[in-house]
Design goal:
Radius of gyration: 12 Å
Order of helices and strands: EEEE
Largest sheet: 4 strands, antiparallel
Amino acid sequence: TVVFKIYNAKGQLVSSFAETHTLPGTYTLEFSGNDHNGRELASGLYFCSMQFKGKNYVRKMMKTK
């Protein structure tokens, strides 16, 4: 299982979800740009944290309209 958490520039968690794949390979995930309540997030800087097999990876993302 891969756990994704999206944080705003203030470090507040705005969305999270998990994906499970049984076969190795490359996968694509599209983030809708909405928070955990379904509201559209504002344009700006966000951070995506991906947790997999005890490791954590963080990447910057820009949301534009």
